[in-house]
Amino acid sequence: MTDTRDETTATAAASGQHATERFRESGRVGATGISKERVDLLASRVIKAVNDTVLDEKVTYEEYNALKAWLIQVGEDGEWPLFLDVWIEHSVEQVANENRHGSQGSIEGPYYVPDSPVQQSPTKLPMRDDEPGTPLLFQGRVTNVAGEPLPDAKIEIWHADDLGFYSQFAPGLPEWNLRATVPVESDGQFHIDTMQPAPYQIPTDGACGALIRAAGWHAWRPAHIHLKVSAPDHLEITTQLYFTGDTHISDDIASAVKQSLILDPQQRSDAQGKAVTYDFVLDPA
Ligand code: MBD
Ligand code: FE
User: Fold this and answer.
1) Which residues have C-beta atoms less than 6 Å from ligand 1?
2) Ligand 2 centroid – CA 224 distance (Å)
3) Nearest ligand to residue 253 Cα
4) What secondary structure does DSSP assign to the chain, as a single string?
5) Measured in angstroms, how far is the CA atom of residue 44 from the centroid of ligand 2?
6) Of all protein residues, whose CA lies closest to atom 6 belonging to ligand 1?
7) Which of 18, 80, 82, 111 for mutating ligand 1's site (highest number of atoms within 8 Å of CB)?
8) Which entry of 104, 233, 249, 268 is 20 to 30 Å from 9 by CA?
9) pLDDT tens, position by position, for the chain (285 residues)?
10) Ligand 1 atom closest to Cα of 107?
11) Alpha carbon of 147 to ligand 1 centroid (Å)
């Protein structure tokens, strides 16, 4: 029997479990240097914020039990990474990057995978022979805040395909589809051939989807390209780039769009598809 699963049969629980496992493996969990005083302060404030909401809004037992059942479901669906990255990470990112002078950051989200294939620029991202979508040449330069090129910079890039699915989080896609680590050229420039990603709907059949429906929200993020740009002796930037005119550019469910991160690709005269230039500026470490 042939395997007829493809990316469109992705389920929230399967992609959620993957994201949860990835987070556990990421080395970001475990012993931390967070002090007892800090835990006391932060946990007390969060608990108080919830209690204030209960008192102000006169929350009922029916509502309290709905919350309890929903929180249990978030864990069972493996959707804590999704929930936190959609509704909380943007303010953590804002705090983390508030003193930068170079390129603006944005959230990492739940679908980053480290150690993607290294492909020297100029390059084409790993993709299927019949990868659907509009070809996009993404090019630019990586410099320091003085505008000097950083020839040892590298760009980790990952994004969804034309149907809005990420490799390793939906079935049927090649392992590293639309993911790579790209060392830049000797003058700091990069040229990456890819396919323009589609707007992305977060999984709707799990706990996060249930919340969205119950609240009457929508599940969309505008189309975006994820990036981590780094160079020796400079601060790595994690960011995302968006596309002008996207339907959800001003109501991203993850609140992660910034004006400086919106691209305006132009039709190419020399080849099929579009091209866009974006220069990254890295702060000193
Ligand atoms: C995504 O692709 C994403 O970037 C974020 C932040 C949340 C869910 C899916
Ligand atoms: Fe994403």
Assistant:
1) 82, 85-86, 107, 109-111, 200, 202, 221, 254
2) 6
3) 1
4) ------GGG--HHHHHHHHHHHHHHTT-SS-----HHHHHHHHHHHHHHHHHHHHHHT--HHHHHHHHHHHHHHHHTT-HHHHHHHHTHHHHHHHHTTT--SSPP----TT--SSPPB-PSSEE----TT--S-EEEEEEEEEETTS-B-TT-EEEEEE--TTS--TTSSTTS-TTTTEEEEE--TTSEEEEEEEPPPPEE--SSSHHHHHHHHHT---EE---EEEEEE-TTB--EEEEEEETT-TTTTS-TT----GGGEE--EE-SSSSSEEEE--EEEPB-
5) 32
6) 109
7) 111
8) 249
9) 445 567 877 888 888 888 888 888 888 877 688 999 999 999 999 999 999 999 999 999 999 999 999 999 999 999 999 999 999 999 999 999 999 999 999 999 999 999 999 999 999 999 999 999 999 999 999 999 999 999 999 999 999 999 999 999 999 999 999 999 999 999 999 999 999 998 889 989 999 999 999 999 999 999 999 999 999 999 999 999 999 999 999 999 999 999 999 999 999 999 999 999 999 999 999
10) 6
11) 31
